[in-house]
Description:
alpha/beta; Rossmann fold; 7-stranded mixed beta sheet; 5-stranded mixed beta sheet
Amino acid sequence: MGRVPEVRVRAEAARRVASGRLWLTRRDLLKPPEIGPGEEVRLLSPEGFFLGRGYFNPESRIPVRIYTREDHPLDHRFLVRVLSQALALRQRVYPGEETFRLVHGEGDYLPGLTVDLYRGVAVVQIATAGMERRREEILSALREVLSPKGVILRNDLPVRKEEGLSLYTEVVWGEVSGPVEVRMDGLRFLVDPLRGQKTGFFLDHRENRRWVRRIARDLVVLDLYAYTGAFGLYALSGGARRVFAVERSAEALALAEENARLNGFSSQFFPLQGRVEEFLRDAPDAGLIILDPPAFIKSGKARESGRRKYAEINRLVLSSLRKGLFFTSSCSRFLSSEELLALVRQGARGVSLKLLSRHFQAPDHPENPAHPETSYLKGFTFEVTEPSG
Length: 389
């Protein structure tokens, strides 16, 4: 490897890097380097002091992403060390588990890289040109650290277009042609890593599903935007009487129905294909409603229209639930926890709310305190009652 280009950054940017920030904009650079997308750079203060190493992409709205504050190349040796550290953390947080998120981008100081592990099948998402250039080193390091029976590249993220990258899905190791069965908390789930949303399953809600199981005993449950039924099946495993699972995707709902069968809950699990808004107009009485919508705000430009969608769907739920428990969440990083809480309060006309619990993403999705973007999942559980007096 030849000499790595050096880039000096402005003083205020140097201070942010020193405090842990991993992204630099073009304005942060004193002079952008004349190199190709994804090439490595050494970052220096205005005075010439070393700050860290990252990779550069002139086509990206975030041209520099930092992966270390040490002077190490992003090579096989470095990746093995960082992946081993990430694995050790997951084994401590979830000992004995075979299904978890191994790499959470900036939360694990590997910007542009996500790796989920489903019982020996690693699903990799590469979002940036810098990581795409090191695709083979990433795959080699994963094989050394994990010895997986299968590796899938789910590089179908729309954000790749902003990096000048193509979209594709590829099985690069092992034989994976359909759903993989995983086990979590005594339950069985079919995960489709090739065609499912994200990497096939919402691992970030693990702790929140455990909470739902604790509070669901003897209740009728509405699982809205149910996807493959995980929330509802946790509720049934906690003693819920029955679950109505509402989901627009026929493919996801078919997996949800099969998951219910695998766990012996077919007679208590009622899959309903359709729009949640229409279902709520004539919803059955329930003691617990679970609202886990998709990200209505996918970019800063969609903030206001997305806020209106969150406000409306929470209002509809509260209009149909006069007494019971209400779990609500948002996976959009563009909506803060306090904003979601305010939207719920605005929709709570004619009912009283008691806030029982706040919810976050699971610890295998670590937050980087210098990156609010890594803190994206938030939620609340309320007891809903008629106003007293």
